[in-house]
Amino acid sequence: AHSWNYSISAQEGRRLQLSLQISDPSLGGRFHTTEVTWAWTEYMTPPWARLQALAILYSGGVGIGDKRSFFGLGGFVEQDLLRALFLNQRQCCTYLRGYQPNATVGDQYHLLSVEYRSPLLWIERGTATFPMYLRRVHGALFGDTGEAFFGALKLGDIRTSVGAELRLEATLIYYIAAEIQLGVARGLSKGGSDQIYLVTSFPF
Questions:
Q1: Whole-prediction pTM value?
Q2: Could you tell me the CA-to-CA distances from 81 to 51, 78, 85, 179 in Å, in that order?
Q3: What is the C-alpha to C-alpha distance for residues 10 and 52, in angstroms, rounded to an integer?
Q4: What pLDDT is attached to residue 21?
Q5: In this structure, how many other beta carbons lie within 10 angstroms of the beta carbon of residue 145?
Q6: pLDDT under 70 in the chain at which residues?
Q7: Longest distance between any two alpha carbons in the chain, whole Å
Q8: What angle do CA 13, 14, 15 make, to 5 degrees?
């Protein structure tokens, strides 16, 4: 995946991930489990705007063993934003925005997220020696759809949401790269709600 000097995210190429996690009491774990997760993220630049980006993520996973709820999908958990920023504690990694955290759980999951990203405001300013430098603001329109489940996936259970985010990039204490996201999301399926959130996380 590639980005340029003024890119707000990767703008072309792809990122593929495959992970195997094994837990066993002989290795210090609490359960006998095996989890496999995967993700494919694709980045594209629209022909009409060189610094805008379309990002598409498909991720999934399956787990077996004596633990039941391997995966949970939902929105962001409550966060102490100041602590998270200065300790660089971002939320990670797959979200179904517009729903409560872990609104759906299971030993399998599939998630598709699409974001259209665009720069909005270039700031590039700090104040004297105050340890905060504001870089820029960019926005994203998004749609999420997915489900965590046991057994076979039922198409009628898949949950969908849409929303928008404003993202402020800053540098704290001269070297910590931070991003604050102010978002609004609407869950369109069972259990969904209108949500407003202010968090710091890892965008895909």
A1: 0.89
A2: 28, 9, 6, 11
A3: 10
A4: 92
A5: 17
A6: none
A7: 59
A8: 145
* Pair of tokens at residue 23: 């837990």
| Spatial contact of 35 and 66, defined as CB atoms under 8 Å apart | no
Among the listed residues 150, 151, 144, the one whose alpha carbon sits nearest the alpha carbon of residue 189: 144
Residue reference for tokens 């929105």: 75
pLDDT digits (tens, 9 = 90+) for 177-194: 888 999 999 999 999 999
**C-alpha closest to that of 117 among 43, 63, 52, 164:** 52
Count CB atoms within 10 A of the CB of residue 87. Answer: 10
Return the DSSP state at 86: H
- How many whole angstroms separate alpha carbon 125 and alpha carbon 132? 9
| Three-state DSSP string of 20-82 | EEEECHHHCCCCCEEEEEEEEEEEECCCCCCCCEEEEEEEEEEEEECCCCCEEECCCCCCCHH
Angle at 182 (CA atoms; ends 139, 137), nearest 5 degrees: 40
Q: Which residue has the tokens 């270039």?
A: 122
Q: In whole angstroms, how large is the CA radius of gyration of the chain?
A: 18
